[in-house]
Amino acid sequence: MNAELSETSNILKAHPASALGGRVRAPGDKSMSHRALILGAMATGVTEIEGLLEGDDILATARAVAAFGAGVKRLGSSHWRITGLGEFRTPDEVIDCGNAGTGVRLLMGAAAGFDLQAVFDGDVSLRKRPMTRVTRPLTAMGARFDWLQREGRLPVRLTGGGLSGATYRQTVASAQVKSALLLAGLNATGKTIVEEPERSRDHTERMLRAFGAEVGIEPMADGWRIILVGGQKLSGATVAVPGDPSSAAFPLAAGLIVPGSEVTVEGVMLNPLRTGLFETWREMGADLTISNRRHAGGEEVGDVTARHSALRGVVVPEDRAASMIDEYPILAATAAFAQGRTVMRGIGEMRVKESDRIALMARGLAACGVAVEEEPDGLIVTGGPVRGGAVIDTAHDHRIAMSHLILGLAASEPVSVRDPEMIATSFPGFVDLMRTLGAEVEGEDRA
Ligand code: S3P
């Protein structure tokens, strides 16, 4: 989607379900899919990607790397070939990243290392999101950013090239910022060092190694240091993208909260920097089992089964936030069915995602009759019988839409969501997949 979001708003309605059951596959991991396309385009030679997420966010990144000069070919379902030139070239068109914060921030970093000019833009949601967290350190490395409308917000013109490595200490662990700087650092002189207080997802570090680069990762007294020496060349590689744990979370959540259910999601990536939600659910008493553990695409993968469970509220450790930052909306929805309070703090970053997710979850849960307290950087949910029976404003945010639809499956009355089209950014086929598990979701699945 480009700057104007669809005017023809659709509604999906989730009806209270009787037991759900079955085995499904989650779509490819979104974080790895962006990285596979971008690294493939920066590398020299052919990269073959299996399991690529074919969601709108990723299709925008595929178009972007083609505009930067890479050969991009879809060989079959989720099977893509990228032919990299070893460099990005000045594109003829605006790089429109749609709804994708990860796409635009990683692409800005990758492009900043090359001698080119490019204008980056996105949809109305992406235009509201802060970009200086990436552009400020990239500017310190020597890139130039000219804001075309509003300081710190898209659209922006990048002039890249001539970078020098730098050391950057992040106050909040962000994999997007870390990744942007490492990708820029590949084509900078000297070392690029990123320090983070907690470890954020490490897919960029892992994938850089798979493409032939050396990356150092060192523990520090108060965090982690990632070190990359500039001037390294990437060579095309083969990437198998496993299932996205952030997407698997939705059918698994339904399995936990709908009485009598047993839901298995196969091939879920189990990178420990992504599984904070599973750990939290277990602490809440969830019957969650993992079978068939194996390795795929440089990651541990397994089949995850969720059975209906009597959940109890917990205090989520704040230092777990980085490993489950996208999962708090669905955690909040499941916490509505737990006995007692679930306390989620240290999650201020949620306010600058595809929407202000703290505010929208607080509003949506309250509309469904759930006791919820909103804090500047936290959310507290007290579980109990969930009435439902509301129409939820999703602010075009895919995870807000999916979280409320799942909640509706276990509430007393149906829950409807407005503007669910954005589900296609991360989870195309979500509604059909939920229907195969036995869920009754009314409305047209345009995702
Ligand atoms: C992502 C990192 C996270 C996450 C986003 C994907 C990534 O953002 O919320 O959906 O692929 O690097 P931050 O790095 O800003 O926390």
Furnish the topology, listing elements before pairings.
Elements lengths: L10 E4 L6 E5 L4 H13 L1 E7 L5 H12 L3 E6 L2 E7 L9 E2 L4 H12 L4 E5 L10 H10 L2 E4 L8 E4 L7 E3 L5 H11 L5 E6 L6 H8 L4 E6 L2 E7 L8 E3 L4 H13 L4 E8 L6 H8 L3 E10 L2 E9 L7 E2 L11 H8 L5 E5 L11 H11 L3 E5 L2 E5 L8 E2 L5 H13 L4 E4 L11 H7 L4 E2 L5
Helix pairs in contact: 1-2, 1-3, 1-6, 3-5, 4-5, 7-9, 7-11, 9-11
Shikimate-3-phosphate binds next to α5.
Rg is: 21 Å
**What's the end-to-end separation, in Å?**
12 Å
CATH domain class of the largest domain: Alpha Beta
CATH homology superfamily name of the largest domain: Enolpyruvate transferase domain
Proportion of residues in helical segments: 25-40%
CATH architecture annotation name of the largest domain? Alpha-beta prism
Shape: globular
Question: What is the number of domains?
Answer: 2
* Low-confidence region ranges: 1-8
Strand content: 25-35%
The CATH topology of the largest domain corresponds to UDP-n-acetylglucosamine1-carboxyvinyl-transferase, Chain
The number of distinct helices, counting runs of at least 4 residues, comes to 12
Key words describing this protein structure:
single chain; 447 residues; alpha/beta; UDP-n-acetylglucosamine1-carboxyvinyl-transferase, Chain; 2 domains; four-stranded mixed β-sheet; 12 helices; 28% helix; disordered N terminus; binds shikimate-3-phosphate
